[in-house]
Specification:
The chain is an alpha+beta fold. The chain has 16 helices and 22 strands. It has 3 domains: 234 residues, no CATH class; 161 residues, no CATH class; 53 residues, no CATH class. The strands form 5 sheets. Strands 2-1-5-4-3-6-7 form a 7-stranded antiparallel sheet, sandwiched between helices. The chain starts with a helix and ends with a helix.
Length: 603
Amino acid sequence: MSYEINRRLAAERPPLETSAEVDSVTAGIIRGAFETICFETAVHLGRAASSAIINQSNERNGSIIDAHGRLAGVSVGIPQLLFISPMAVRWGIEHYEEDDWGPGDVFLGNDPDHGGGHLPDYTVYAPCFDSGGSLVAIQALQAHQGDTGGKDPGGFSVDSLDIFHEGLPIPRLKLVHRGERRGDVLDLLIRNNRLPSFTGDIAAMIGAAELGAQLLGDLVERWGSDVVRAAMNFNIGETERRFRSEVEKWPDGCYEADVWIDHDTVGHEDVRVHVACHVAGDQLTVDMTGSDDRPELVNVWNTFSNSRGYAMAQLVSMVDPTIVKNEGLFNAVEMVIPEGTIVQPPPNKPAALGAFHPACEIGEAICIALSQIVPERSSPQVYKLGMPNAVIGFDDEGQMWMDQGVDVRASDASATEGIDGWGSLCSGLGNLILAQAEDAESRFPVINLSREMTCDSGGAGRWRGQPGTLNVKKVLEPTMAVAWMVSMKHPLRGLRGGEDASPYSNHFEVGTPGEYKIENSVRADLPAGAVIAYQYGGGAGFESPLLRDPAAVREDVLDEYVSVEAAREHYGVVVTGSAEACDVEVDEEATRRLRDELLAEQA
């Protein structure tokens, strides 16, 4: 049944009925108002929420969906997740009459088999009506919840066999009716969540959605509903036209890539994501046929909505960034997401970890494939960690606390043409802000011992990937820790001759006789004082490292991004001196001879 639902929810929607016509200036003003409303509602949610993952890390996203379920507006957020809310809202729209939609209503959905991403990603949405009672648009907010009532705290169960092990799936649920909170419904949600902060989070989501509906109502009153509808039609059509114009510049052909996940959570190895990008005139088709469909796989099932969202997040990064992000993107791209595979699983498959992998591999494969024809815009919008180290415990009153492991780190910041990997995170994480040590230590019984960039962990290339970090943390009380390690065998791939990033690694009970390396998935009980050391992989390189300017390699050695040995081995650059003494110099003649030798070996 879910395949049929997915096909229906993803089908192209017609323009809104309107008698008005608008010019580009009017459409642009209304589009700007949509972006402002989304920004204001997302900020409202962040400031009002109780949990650190929302109010500190910014994992909240605002979007506006029109009355036909088309994405009409977005603001800054996490790109992949900005494209997910419309599917959950469309499921709600299908039940418009049955659920008695009206002014002041607020709804919730998170069910992967009914348009949702994965269970922790709640979508709360509120409709806006015109003075005649006609639906004009819907304000949606999406935010990650730290618990969803599953068998394991936090919802990331490494051994879940179905969606019900992970938590409470909600296809659609009315939280507020005509402005009145439904106490019985809210009590049900709160009772099915272990975190005391959830009460504040769900209240903040409702308040933000209501604010968005109010602001939309003000906009409709000012401009008139017909003009607002015409503006949405105009902007969506313009985005499709501009995206197709970009694709038309690309050479026709089929561009393919395979990306691999080390293993699922029980050890089935080399899980495959395959993408073929077909370009024919102004039509781009992204075909994921060939992706893994082994029924015995565990916890590597990505939801249909996530697969669409992660694919589009990568695609929009590869065209003119001024193209407005809305439903026109999806109208311009045909996606083939095969049923029964890890990119569109059978009903009721566990999906929490699939939002990490294979979701990220979809974007990475598209980037690798299209780097053949648009290298200047090829930057993987992905993160390669299996999942963060979640550390979970209970206080003296029996209340659960959870450090979700979203600590400040450097990882996956790859190079692209003309630019070394920079910052600390891949651009695909958008406005996400990772946890400061001071904030985490004030909330949880943990101490962050060190967070240091690791020399030689960035992929070598003409443009170099940013190194990753080694994050070392001590737990001060007995806790449970959950992790799933990948990207050890298959780290982030280099592009156009650039080298791969360094692999990830993770050790528990560091510095004791019982120290051990996490080889796959783990749910471990750690004693007070246990130390965890998580090595994050760096970004990948772009083009051959033998093309890198030796002067840039010298600077990398001085900055301790690259060792003297790696400068010789990977870049063919011979340097004298040391970073410690700050006397590093390039031996130009020795470098020329070494590079000639290495190029001859490659020929």
